[in-house]
């Protein structure tokens, strides 16, 4: 059976960056299962999985536009330390939810300079080409419940 709309696919993966450093992997864990066509994985990877079947092994390079998008400098801004009321100690790398014009936005502290804190609302992998090594382990029809909920169970 091939990966297509309304099917649940499971796969093992290793994600590396341009330098070959492993960023994430399913090694030692269960394969990742997703409902094809539901937008649960980056578009470039979902597109590369289309038509594949259990046992297929392949590599795919996903450019930023088909991954987590390009970096947007407008999502980086400096805010006063006072904006973090109730947080005793701020550190680079801490994540917070912020309210932006389009709703909630996840931000990461990128730098701290005295009373100014630089936050970055870009996804950590924005602007990067994603290099995946994939092994498809299973493909099956999605259940009515999975289709109704929009994700694999």
UniProtKB/TrEMBL annotation:
<keyword id="KW-0963">Cytoplasm</keyword>
<dbReference type="GO" id="GO:0005737">
    <property type="term" value="C:cytoplasm"/>
</dbReference>
<keyword id="KW-0697">Rotamase</keyword>
<comment type="similarity">
    <text>Belongs to the FKBP-type PPIase family.</text>
</comment>
<feature type="domain" description="PPIase FKBP-type">
    <location>
        <begin position="6"/>
        <end position="95"/>
    </location>
</feature>
<dbReference type="Pfam" id="PF00254">
    <property type="entry name" value="FKBP_C"/>
</dbReference>
<protein>
    <recommendedName>
        <fullName>Peptidyl-prolyl cis-trans isomerase</fullName>
        <ecNumber>5.2.1.8</ecNumber>
    </recommendedName>
</protein>
<dbReference type="InterPro" id="IPR046357">
    <property type="entry name" value="PPIase_dom_sf"/>
</dbReference>
<dbReference type="GO" id="GO:0003755">
    <property type="term" value="F:peptidyl-prolyl cis-trans isomerase activity"/>
</dbReference>
<keyword id="KW-0413">Isomerase</keyword>
<dbReference type="GO" id="GO:0042026">
    <property type="term" value="P:protein refolding"/>
</dbReference>
<keyword id="KW-0143">Chaperone</keyword>
<comment type="function">
    <text>Also involved in hydrogenase metallocenter assembly, probably by participating in the nickel insertion step. This function in hydrogenase biosynthesis requires chaperone activity and the presence of the metal-binding domain, but not PPIase activity.</text>
</comment>
<dbReference type="InterPro" id="IPR001179">
    <property type="entry name" value="PPIase_FKBP_dom"/>
</dbReference>
């Amino acid at each position: 059976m091939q990966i297509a709309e309304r099917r649940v696919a499971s796969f093992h993966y290793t994600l590396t960056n341009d330098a070959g450093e492993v960023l994430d992997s399913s090694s030692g864990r269960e394969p990742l299962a997703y409902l094809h066509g539901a937008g649960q994985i980056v578009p470039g990877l979902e597109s590369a999985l289309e038509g594949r079947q259990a046992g297929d092994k392949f590599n795919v390079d996903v450019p930023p536009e088909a991954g987590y998008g390009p970096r947007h400098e407008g999502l980086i801004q400096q805010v006063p330390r006072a904006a973090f009321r109730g947080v005793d100690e701020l550190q680079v790398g801490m994540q917070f939810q912020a309210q932006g014009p389009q709703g909630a936005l996840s931000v990461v502290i990128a730098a701290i300079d005295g009373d100014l804190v630089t936050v970055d609302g870009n996804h950590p992998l924005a602007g990067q080409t994603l290099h995946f090594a994939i092994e498809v382990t299973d493909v099956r029809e999605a259940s009515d419940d999975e289709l109704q909920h929009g994700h694999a169970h």
